[in-house]
Structures are given as C-alpha cells and as structure tokens.
Amino acid sequence: MQPEPRIIVEKDKGFQKGSNTMLQPKIMVMGVGNVLLSDEGLGVQFLTLLAQETLPDHVELLEGGTAGLELVHLIKEVDYLIIVDAVNAKDEPGAIFRFEPEDIRVMPSQFEVSFHQVGILEVLAMANILGNAPKTLIFGVQPKSLEMGLELTPEIQAVLPRVKELVLEEIQNITQHGEFRQVNS
Length: 185
What we know:
Blueprint: E1 6-9, E2 27-32, H1 42-50, E3 59-65, H2 72-75, E4 80-86, E5 96-99, H3 120-129, E6 135-141, H4 154-177
Parallel strand pairs: 2-3, 2-4, 4-6
Antiparallel strand pairs: 1-3, 5-6
C-alpha cells in the first residue's frame, strides 16, 4: 500500500484556478520519489529544504512520494507545477536537468524521467486529457544510488541547495512575469 500524497505547505484556500480575482497564479512545488531507495527520494527530501524558506502565500508544497495517478486531482487547481525528481540521464551523479513535459519527445531514449510504477508524465498526461493540466516544469537530478536506504548520498545532498535556488528563481519569475524563466538552449 502506497502512502497518501501529503501537502506540506498549503495556503491561499480562496484561490480558484484561472480566476481574475487574485493577482497571483497558484503555484505548486511537488517532490516525488521513493524515500526508501536513497537518492530516488531526493524530490521528497528536497521539500524539507524548501519548506524552511518563507514562500509567498500562493505557493503550495506537495510531497507526492510515489503516489501516481492519485496526484491528478491534487494538481488540477494550480496554474503552475514545479516538480523535483530523480531522473536517469546516464550522467554524473548530481547533474541537474530542467525541462518541460513537451521536451520529453526530443530527449534521447536512454533518458528515464521516472523510476516509479506510474510516472509523473502519466499523471500529467491524464490531467491533460481531463483538461486541467497546469503549466509544468521539471527539475531532475541524476541519482548516484538507488540502493535501499533512507539517506541521500553526499553528492546529491550537495546539489539540493542549487536546486532550491533554481526553484525559487522560477517561483519569483512566475510571480513577477506570469511564466517560467526563458532559458536559451
């Protein structure tokens, strides 16, 4: 039995997606992964680091764990979704990747976006089919170890502050400009 997704920081209950009555778009930062498999749980452990920050009221943190399709109903009320997860890009441990779901079709076939039974891409595809997929950005980190264990490896612990900086930059850009940062390819 999988644990239920858990909202870590929930604010702004009066917000309605797409509403013009609120000035700020609703943003959710979701950490996903299996905390029993060391670096596979980096997304969930990342939220602990991010929760220490003072975040705007329109930002919510969600511990998605390995919940899968149960996440669809939780993301339908947000305008922007930022996901942090382990990805296998056959790169150096700790390498950080920034991409949108649309980028997946042009990525090399050896690039694994999710280690979970039902990946986050399937969750986003279902939300899209239902007509309520938020604009989404994914920060993936190349894990070093997927062995049984509750601790992140030192290499992954060392890059989480940089991932936090990147996520905070995105939150600021969405808040100020209503979109993800434009990155030159």
